[in-house]
Amino acid sequence: MNMKNIAIIGSGTMGNGIAHTFAQNNFQVSLVDINQRAITNAKKTINTNLDRQLNKGTISLAIKEQTLKNIRTFTNLKEAIWNADLVIEAATENRGTKLSIFKELDQWCKQAAILASNTSSISITKLASVTNRPDRIIGMHFMNPVPIMLLVEVIRGYSTSNETTQTIMELSRNLGKNPVEVNDYPGFIANRILMPMINEAIYALYEGVAGKEEIDQVMKLGMAHPMGPLQLADFIGLDVCLAILKVLQKGFGNPKYAPCPLLVNMVNAGMLGKKTKQGFYDYE
Fold it and tell me: Which position among 16, 30, 172, 191 bears the catalytic label?
């Protein structure tokens, strides 16, 4: 399938990063969000990140300008997606929200379009079940920050076709990414391994085994992780970490995935990490 027009649903951290990446690779991108303020912030973020690339010498001014020209923004979903070859949903990590979006996408997108989700944990098979095109539903789990991180976790739902999978694998490579194909089980691969590690680090802090800096330093210096698990949790968003752990716990029915009470309390208190400027660490 010849992919030219890409629609991104949601202009938050992941959505604007995905839009940036496709636009920089000369795709025509429609970025849609119901919130005009979010769209405005997304455009500022993309411009700032392009300036950072420009200052580092990794792109030219011409590439920056063309990237920005390749992105159109919308607050009307139907207007944004009607001619899309691929739609990538990057809305909030809430199953009900995503199911509602996929019902609308299936209704309004052209029949040949592939519908993808950037979900970090929600079942692709479940999302496909509310559409009439389960063979063309797939997961494209990008990593943050999207323009820099090379991995794309490509998740096959129960009915995802080989053709759809190969199309998305090839498309990911054309973006300069390294796609990894996985099957649709709770947490996929990235978060099935990552979230229990983060949760265990939070338990270690909760039980007073060590302080936050010490826990992070052990993992950075001892295991060569670029970022400690508590700092990484702040970067991901503590609410997102909690939501993924709940999906793992429910999906496997195993108490080892139960979220640490400290994590639950912090989310309830609105301490969500970097995006609220307060989590395990404070951010200005």
Answer: 191
